Amino acid sequence: MTIDWEKLGQVFLYNEKDPLLFNSAFFLFFILAFLAFYQFLYKKKLTRVLVFTLFSFYFFYKACGWYVSFILIAAIIDYNLSNWIYLAKSLNKKKLLLIFSITINLGLLAWFKYTDLFIHTINDLALGHIDPLKLVIPIGISFYTFENLSYTIDVYRGHFKPVNSFWDYLFFLSFFPKLVMGPIVRAADFIPQIRQEIKINGHHIARGLFLILGGLFKKVVISDYIYVNFVEMIFDDPSRFSGLECLLGVYGYAMVIYCDFSGYSDMAIGMAQWMGFTINPNFETPYQSSSITEFWRRWHMSLSSWLRDYLYIPLGGNKKGKVRTYVNLMLTMLLGGLWHGASWNFVVWGGIHGLGLAIDKLRMTLFPVSKPRLILKVLGVIWTFHLVCLCWIFFKCETFEDSGIVLRQIFTDFSLESPEGNNPVLAEILSLGSSPLGQLWNNYQSVFLIMLMGYVVHFIPKRLDDWIIEQLVKVPLSGKIAVATLFIWIVIQSKQAEPVIPIYLRF
User: Fold this and answer.
1) 269 near 204, Cβ under 8 Å?
2) Which of 71-80, 411-420, 491-500 has the lowest mean pLDDT?
3) What's the CA gap between 191 and 350, in Å, rounded?
4) What is residue 8's predicted lDDT score, i.e. its pLDDT?
5) Could you say which of 14, 75, 196, 223 would form a disulfide bridge with 260 (CB–CB 3.0 to 4.6 Å)?
6) Would the pLDDT of 418 be above 50?
């Protein structure tokens, strides 16, 4: 058998149609190769930093091609600016350097994310006609831009002394487990770990294994399956489906986006554990929240805390009076919506969340309750979940028109009858003569069961996770390998024919 060396070589090069992600087939080879190297060098600090950074850059190259150069440029700029800010003698000079850093970082982010939105807005308002540039957003640019900004701002505030070694800063910024989709890691939390002696014990290995396998299961088995077999079809053309189907599609998307993003975050945190580094959790069962305020303490925690510390508080937070507090909440969430992408739908998504936070703060001011009764907490969970689901409609749909169609179907056509007779899929189901609900169940039984499993797992108490990890600690290495092999086999059996790109990859 002859080896096609050219074809084999292509496997190691960037492929736009198959970027390297945690759920990619090539990633298993990548992580095993990395861990094999890491075993021999993790105790040598400088060597560890250099080799780890090289692997991170290769990972990023396989994920986004030559956009990898952007993270190197960003590291060079902000490493030097942060040191100049620290050494500057006058406050004015520090401010000018900080403004320059913010302008460079946000300017580059805005160019890729918002130029085409600006052009479309000009064209829609008939103020001129400009051909869109159709810019491709570099993978991970939002995450490492926010990390750069928090670093230079913290240095300016005097909260953090900049690192002396450029390699340490490059290592922090390019750390591949969190590079593509977060979590957003603060330099003050991560950089001190770089030069510390790494000690990996049984608990680290067990917790890492639990997070990696659990995250992979959430992403591939739950999220991808529900999306491909139900949610994608509903949102592609919601006018073809009844209100009940659209509502179930929204419930499905709520589980899809949670399992997709939290699964990826869990894998990143788990891999970091295996490498001797600690990354703060990014999700904490957000759909258990009994208020929208609590939801944002549990959902994408690295982003919500970033927005609080570097946007909401600098705007004045709650120190400028009640009215200003509500305005600051709205501005923070509107800008948080724009962070997600160049679409007015994201602005509406952020606006509804901002309004919800403002109303929630007013409620807590007028009716302070230290410990609500169980029935009120349950009702709060139901209300909060449905408010979040309403927002997910705008988050998922590409246009206001599509969002309006989903809402119209849910609120005006909540039946299984074919809307205006233009639902061939549903018409075929109804023609079978059985109960419409029964036929809906029969046709999407596996999807609904996996959705139910996702929600049941989501509401399991955290102490069960801790118990499972403690049991894994006791399992010998051979047993851990057997568990991992079984999970990987299940994932392979459940994996969709075509890879499903993570939702937050485009942010």
Assistant:
1) no
2) 411-420
3) 32
4) 58
5) 223
6) no
Mean pLDDT of 218-241: 92
CA 393, CA 406: separation in Å to the nearest integer? 7
Residue found under tokens 């149609």: 17
**Closest C-alpha to 480, from 488, 472, 469:** 472
Segment 160-176 mean pLDDT: 91
Phi, psi of 315 (to 5 degrees): -70, -15
CA distance 53 to 155: 23
Whether omega before 368 lies within 30 degrees of 0, making that bond cis, reads no
CA 114 to chain CA mean position, Å: 20
Handedness of CA 143, 149, 155, 159 (dihedral sign): negative
Active-site annotation holder among 204, 300, 340, 353: 340
Q: Is 204 a catalytic residue?
A: no
For residues 193 and 75, is the Cβ–Cβ distance under 8 A? no
Q: Tell me the pLDDT band of 447, cut-offs 50, 70 and 90.
A: very high
Contact 296, 303 (CB under 8 A): no
Whether 449 shows a pLDDT value over 90: the answer reads: yes
Q: CA-to-CA distance for 505 and 500, rounded, in angstroms?
A: 11
Q: What's the pLDDT score for residue 248?
A: 94
Of the two residues 86 and 418, the one the predictor is more confident about is 86
CA 255/CA 308 separation, integer angstroms? 26
Is 90 exceeded by the pLDDT of residue 57?
yes
Residue 285 reports pLDDT greater than 70: yes
What is the spatial distance between Cα 318 and Cα 313, in angstroms, rounded to a whole number?
8
Sequence spans of domains, the chain: 15-198, 203-290+372-506
- Angle between helices 68-87 and 91-124 in degrees, nearest 10: 140
CB count, 10 Å around CB of 335? 16
Residue 22: closest CA among 502, 473, 507, 427: 502
Torsional sign, CA 316, 320, 323, 325: positive
